[in-house]
Amino acid sequence: MIKKHFNHIIPIFILFVASTCFADSYYSALGLGMPRYFVSPKAVGMGGAGIGVVDRFTLNAMNPAALNIGNITTVAVDFQYENVENKYSGNKITTRNGNASGFRFIVPLKAYLKMIMSLRPLAASRYVFQKRFSNDSVTYDRFVKGSGGLNAAGLGLQYIVMPGLAVGGVINFNFGSFNEEWKTEFSEPGYKNSDDKINSHLWGGGLQLGILYNPIKNLGIGVTYQSSSNLRTNTQTEFGTEGTIESETIRLSYPSALGAGVSFGFSKLVLAADFFTQFWNKYTVAGRDINNFGAFKRYSGGIEYLNSRDPLAAYGKKISYRLGGYFAQLPFKDIAGNAVKEKFMSFGLGFPFQGNQGRVDTAVEIGTRGPSSQMNSQDIVIRISGSVTGGELWFQRRH
After folding, report:
1. Which domain holds residue 334?
2. pTM here?
3. What does pLDDT average to over the chain?
4. Domains identified in the chain, total number
């Protein structure tokens, strides 16, 4: 049995499937799955733009320099629900999935120094494929089911070099698992069904760096860099028909990434725009290049309206209204070599609570993924995100 995540046999298998059932997206079966891009809950409502945005309750997951919590210990917990309607060769199937999606915990050590702890998803994979084969002597069904993902647990610091300039760095422990099952079921007696299971565990390290520069008041410029991660991967394959287990350890590379963003604040408006790219064209498995992968590119832009920042203002005036959109070129290509595209619009709201001591952020994203002209596969996605951010004073100097 050849492992999907390392030798990419499933994409080859899928190319010859005429009638297929699947969960989530066909594209999540490729490589390490769908890239998960997240800057902050505020940014989600603004099309994902936020690398250059600084806000009291915006704990930036992409740029560790873009924090402004003062002396208040602050934590954010994120949730996400996704509805995917997948259209493939005239067939349609809808799947739904929701879960917690990460957290960030920021502790002030000094007025100029903050400690960062975080957990966030990097990639996710969830799919089911089914195909019936038949010839003169036998009819059988082939099933392939998989799930898993890659995550990053981070520990780092933000350092304020001088007013208007901050830098940040996070050391990430990248880890994840992928589970896959291949089943063959025969309709006629006399044939033995097979059930093979593949379980993979990945781990490795990486570095995330960021800069936030405010050359003038209300103008923010952010830059972020993510190093590549050399992932050690252990895979065990259990062959059901033979009752044997094989184990293999290889290395694969989670690619580096670079992003930049700019924001400008008016009295009641914030405008933001980002560009982010991850070099999946340099993705390697056991030292071999994966030639059918390209670079991931994402262009984001959005706007936020907030009537008043006065904590004594009427509650309705303290609600944030957000609007944005993004265009992304995914790292996956069809058999003609064309990149798969995403186009999304987003809407968001921010609700303060406890006298502006915390905030609940919500956002809805609606968009399409694909279609691939060669695969005739398109996803229509509705994604609902939520986050709760709050803080309190843990440390106070005695006079």
Report:
1. 4-392
2. 0.88
3. 87
4. 1
